[in-house]
Amino acid sequence: ECNSNRDSVLSYTSVRSNSSYLGSDEMGSGDELPSDMRIPSDKQDKLHGCLEHLFNQVDAINVLLKGPVISKAFEETKHFPIDHTLQEFKQKEETTIRSRNKIQISIQEDPWNLPFRIKNLVDTIQKYVEDGKNQLLLALLKCTDTELQVRRDVIFCQALVAAICTFSEQLLGALNYRYNNNGEYEESSREASKKWLEQIAATGVLLNYQSLLSPSVKEERTMLEDIQATLSELDKVAFCFKQLDECFVANTHVFYHVEGNRQVLKVTLFLDSYYFSKLPSRFQNGGSLKLHAVLFTKALENLEGQVLPNGSSQEELQHQINSYSLEKVQQYYRKLRTFYLERSNLPTDSNTTAVKIHQLIRPINAMEELCRLMKSFVSAKGNQSGYSSNYVAGAGLLPISSEFCYRLGACQVVMCGTGMQRSTLCVSLEQAAILARSHGLLPKCIMQATDIMRKQGPRVEISAKNLKVMDQMPQSAPRIYKLCQPPADGDL
Description:
Layout: E1 9-13, E2 20-24, H1 41-65, H2 68-76, H3 86-90, H4 92-109, H5 114-143, H6 146-175, H7 189-203, E3 205-211, H8 218-234, E4 237-243, E5 254-260, E6 265-271, H9 273-276, H10 281-284, E7 289-297, H11 314-342, H12 350-378, H13 397-407, E8 411-415, H14 421-438, H15 446-456, H16 458-465, H17 479-483
Parallel strand pairs: 3-7, 3-8, 4-6
Antiparallel strand pairs: 1-2, 4-7, 5-6
Helix pairs in contact: 2-5, 4-5, 6-7, 6-8, 11-12, 12-13, 14-15
């Protein structure tokens, strides 16, 4: 224990001997060492306690590196040109044992070299561990299904691009004060946009992936399983925001930079100075945005009695996905409800307080009812009494979950086998529902609005890009989806 001064003195005293070694910057080899410098007994105890902890860690590492996992890794890679065999690798443990013994000797006979002995042990064990890690990595690469890995990478990229695009559009809408998911409560778009920005800064953003894929079709069942596995990895993605250099990209409001991998991924959104100044202060100061991805799926056909190759029912696959997503979206709803109740700052005036409470309770009551309906649709079973054999149990889950997530401020993505018939018709229905829910469209005009959206919405461009792609609506699809189909003469 000494300062790093020119005249500082070091002293090491062994518990097992009375010898003491001291050193000073000004001492020569022939200088006589002071005999009254000793490490106090409490410092000696601390030294031995630290060394005991170090030796315990070394023992634990040795046990792990001698275990069956490392042996299996060497077995899997025995035909590879490697630097050492398993027996040679295990002999490295003897090096750590020798380094440990030298530390014990230094404590008794040569305390002056104790730091060097400890550093030598640490370096040896680090090299031992690094060799073990490299062998595990080599075995992992050998056993990895590269085709499956590429498939997961491709699906993750597609899901991530969809998330970035839908979030960016909704973000720009909010920054322009045009986003409003609360219009039915006579809230202005400016206030709704500000609330949504504050909400995502506090609770993260909800991503609702809505699937119309059918497990009865092999290709679509594979797609459904892929997206189910991929969305769990989207929770590891973080969005960050930085101000865009005006000279960097011309005539661009938002620019993206992605770094990382599927385990940890960071997406940086560069915004021009006008939009960046409107972000919540947390984002302007470098805070990240967390994603909460959910997937609700329902085939537009009756799957009763149909089974998967593994013997489980196709309905069970949908039920498993929807149940997990329902629990996740409920957690987000509870977090969001707490956020709004805590920030309500109720005024002291009783009349004003009553109005404020009414404004908070109405949306919450509506979401509670939607949540109850979602639970009933998720647990719905086929072939219910009073319905025909073509009845699609729980088909109302798609529009109800869409409305619930819309009220939660979610960014929404719709998918089917081709992105054509089912997806575009579902989007047309959703657009008309938003007009009725938040912008005053009369209920009797919903189907007329849907027809207009079908002829002028995304379906037009998607159909033009996929002229030879066929995607027919199932015969047993719910009536609301059949009503918005184009006529048989081929008109969009």
